[in-house]
Amino acid sequence: MSTLYNQELENKYKNNYDQKSVIVIGGGPLGILSLRYLTEDSSINVICFEAKDNLGGMWYMDKYDSLDPTIDHSQNAFIREHGVVQSSLYENLDLNNPKMMALYKGHPCPKEFKEYMTAEENLQYITSFAEKYNVRNYTSFNTYVNIVRLVANMTEEELANVPFKPTKRFLVQVVSYHNYDKEIRHFQADYIYACSGHFSKPNIQKIPNQEVFEGEIVHTHHYRPKDEDKFANKNIVLIGSMISAQDIFSIFLFEVRNRPTKITVISRKNLDYLKNAVSLQETIQKGQIEFIQQDEYSCVKSRNSLELKSGRIIENVDIILLATGYLYFFPYLDKYNHIDNLIEYYEKSRSFGPLYNKLISINEPHLLFPGCLVGVSQSHHERQAFYAAQYVFGKFQLPSKEEMQKEFEEELEKFGGKRGYLAIAKFPSFIKDHDVYVRKLHKDLKGIEFDEYFQEQWVIYGTIIQNFIANGNYHAMKKDDLSHMDTYDYVPKLGLF
Ligand SMILES: Cc1cc2nc3c(=O)[nH]c(=O)nc-3n(C[C@H](O)[C@H](O)[C@H](O)COP(=O)(O)OP(=O)(O)OC[C@H]3O[C@@H](n4cnc5c(N)ncnc54)[C@H](O)[C@@H]3O)c2cc1C
Predict the structure, then answer these.
(1) Is residue 180's pLDDT more than 90?
(2) Who's near 118: CB < 8 A, 6+ residues apart?
(3) Fewer Cβ within 10 Å of end Cβ, the chain: N or C?
(4) Annotated domain spans of the chain
């Protein structure tokens, strides 16, 4: 891959400023889907800036980790701003949803791909989709967006530093991904798609007294299978019990050659379903894994022990592994947010808003955030991208700001406050909730039929989840044979929403 940005493409974009112009930030799945739908209208002038040297986002894994002491990261624009490399994925990860929900409209994947595709298969699938729609031709690689500004709020002095007189709503500054202070260029746009992802910045909470701990404290973002031996014969405390935690402990218990001696899972959530999981009984009985629920964070007791709120001490701890999730983080919006007010982070960045349909900024409706939902599938992503393009094409109008704000506040109430706002579904009504969200988007779209199969998929997947995840058999779920299902070879139909 070239390490250069695409000068020709950038010039072409600049030469077409008389057209409606859109900048897509990020060439991950959401950037790809956004370009696929935006380019359906040839009158739209569009460019994507991708920091890395290829498409695929998280699924195009970084070749090294930010903790690697042998590599100088000081010039890497992403690491400078996020503190970590972009991808939190690892090679032996399998998707957590079956193919029927992972495929894009009209684009089947090779028959031999697993039902729960491997990360490598998913990357191949995503990039073959991108090739089909010539997404690469609209993407300037090795280019990191470091500032997005509202032109209306810029001072004369600031504008004097821009090599042209901006006439559009947004001014965007980009730099080299590998050399954060080099190759500075400016572009303008009528619309911004923030497709930069939200699974890179680890949510790291300090453990009281952690300075005393002499073992390693590390977030699951940094887990890579090549480090497998680092965990062999070690006592691990795993903080968190959601999907990342379940994925990691399943790998440790059932996949690696040299296993940890013991994994103690500590979580605020109710862990009874894990304690009772049929597939975990043998490992629980052998003492290879233990689940402890507690409301408060533990505290480091000594150089190798933790004290729980109950007073119990966990001795001989080698590694504390944090499966504590990720934070929403948009550094290119943050730098001038005190002036432009483009984003409000909630609950220490576990969520943000205010958004219309969990997609369009209410403060600045030409700023869109595709793919920021949680707990959804690729089929939601594609619907968001389709909906966003129809909006940019002017096929429907948004309600008034007051109406959008009112709706947003009602959603907050429904999801129990700001923290859970970017989920679209809640147990036990989650199957219905998914349907409610996509049908709400569909209401704005005229003349396109709804794909009734959407809900059917969720009914099937809902049963799978209830049988497996809810029973603590998450790792067994990915091994289950679904070939008997009539959905096994299903590819979503083109032309339906
Ligand atoms: C451990 C783990 C497991 C997961 N498993 C699944 C799963 O099974 N199924 C599933 O659907 N999802 C899963 N996900 C979620 C996954 O992140 C999404 O599927 C998907 O990658 C989101 O696509 P995206 O385009 O929004 O973001 P990303 O894939 O993160 O892509 C964002 C892109 O933007 C680029 N970028 C970021 N900032 C800038 C900038 N300032 N300038 C230029 N470019 C920038 C990045 O380099 C990257 O290429 C998982 C996530 C994690 C962490």
Answers:
(1) yes
(2) 92, 93, 94, 95
(3) N
(4) 7-200+327-477, 204-324
What mean pLDDT comes out for the span 13-36?
Answer: 98
Classify domain 7-200+327-477 at the CATH topology level: FAD/NAD(P)-binding domain (3.50.50)
Per-residue pLDDT, averaged over 422-441, amounts to: 90
Total-model pTM: 0.96
pLDDT in the model for residue 3: 64
Q: Return the SS3 of 43.
A: coil
The yes-or-no verdict on residue 1 having pLDDT over 70 is no
| CATH superfamily, region 204-324 | FAD/NAD(P)-binding domain (3.50.50.60)
- Would you state the structure tokens that stand for residue 329, as one six-digit string? 């983080």
pLDDT in tens, 393-423: 999 999 999 999 999 999 999 888 898 899 9
Contact 88, 221 (CB under 8 A): yes
Q: 27 CB less than 6 Å from ligand 1?
A: yes
**Spatial strand order in the sheet of 355-356:** 139-140, 45-49, 21-25, 191-194, 367-368, 360-361, 355-356
If you write DSSP's letter for every residue of 152-174 in order, what string do you get?
A: GG--HHHHHTSSS---SSEEEEE
Write the pLDDT tens digit of every residue in 71-83: 888 999 999 999 9
> Looking at residue 484, what is its pLDDT?
86
Residue nearest to atom 26 of ligand 1 (CA): 197
What is the pLDDT, as a whole number, of residue 140?
98
- Give pLDDT tens digits for 46-57: 999 999 999 999
Burial class (CB in 10 A: 0-12, 13-18, 19+), 3: exposed
Count Cβ neighbours within 10 Å for each residue of 385-422 and write b for 16 or more, e otherwise: bbbbbbbbeeeeeeeeeeebbebbeebbeebeebebbb
Query: Ligand 1: which atom is nearest the Cα of residue 87?
Result: 30
Pairing mode of beta strands 45-49, 21-25: parallel
Does 7-200+327-477 match 204-324 in CATH topology?
A: yes
Q: Is the CB of 279 under 6 A from ligand 1?
A: no
Atom 23 of ligand 1 has which residue's CA nearest to it? 29
The set of residues, in sequence order, having a beta carbon less than 8 Å from that of 215 and lying 6+ positions away, is 303, 304, 317, 318, 319, 320
Kindly indicate the confidence band of residue 336, based on its pLDDT and cuts at 50, 70 and 90.
Answer: very high
Pick the closest to residue 20 from 3, 37, 50, 44 (CA basis).
44
Choose the residue to mutate in 54, 58, 180 for probing ligand 1, maximizing ligand atoms within 8 Å of C-beta.
58
For ligand 1, the distance from its centroid to the CA atom of residue 201, given in whole angstroms, is: 11
Indicate if the pLDDT at residue 382 is higher than 90. Answer: yes
- Which residues, at least 6 apart from 286, have a Cβ–Cβ distance to it below 8 Å? none
CA distances to 101, 234, 252, 254, 258 from 229, rounded to whole Å, are: 34, 9, 11, 15, 7
CA–CA distance, 91 with 118 (Å, rounded to integer): 8
